[in-house]
Amino acid sequence: MSKKWIQTADWKSEKHIPAIEISKIEKGRVYVKVSVGKEIPHPNTTAHHIKWVDLFFWPDDEKFPCEIGYVSFDTHGESAQGPDTGSVHSEPITKFVFSTKKSGTLMATAYCNIHGLWKNEEELKL
User: Which of 13, 56, 103, 104 is surrounded by the fewest CB atoms within 10 Å?
Assistant: First the structure.
């Protein structure tokens, strides 16, 4: 049986795809925003939410990618009164800053508690 581990699509038409936005490249530093549900909002409820986002960078001419960062979104309808009270929900939006002297490929993955693992890639040109 063949399984599709990581799903892909265009983030403009699919609410689970992480959108990768390179906001600035300055003095060797790369500023990247990763969000899920940029064009079509993801529900982000107790029952249906994004658990985490991970960002990798694969420099050109290198054998392996580097993990830039991992962010866990841990609040899904919680409050000081306990879970499922609905007062606080995490939004799957995060920013990363890293230094490099090479161009390469950024890859973001996002995990939905119902619909599994999703990815997107973006070229980084220096």
Answer: 13
The string of pLDDT tens digits covering residues 8-31 is 776 677 789 999 999 999 998 999
Name which of 39, 20, 30 is nearest 122 in CA terms.
20
Of the listed 12, 21, 39, 48, which one is catalytic? 48
Q: What type of residue sits at position 41?
A: P
42 has catalytic annotation: yes
Q: Token digits for 68?
A: 């830039």
pLDDT band at 67 (very low <50, low <70, confident <90, very high): very high
C-alpha angle 117/38/97, rounded to 5°? 80
Is the pLDDT score of 6 beyond 80? no
Please say if 48 is a catalytic residue: yes
Distance CA 57, CA 116 (A): 22
Q: Cα separation of 31 and 4, whole Å?
A: 31
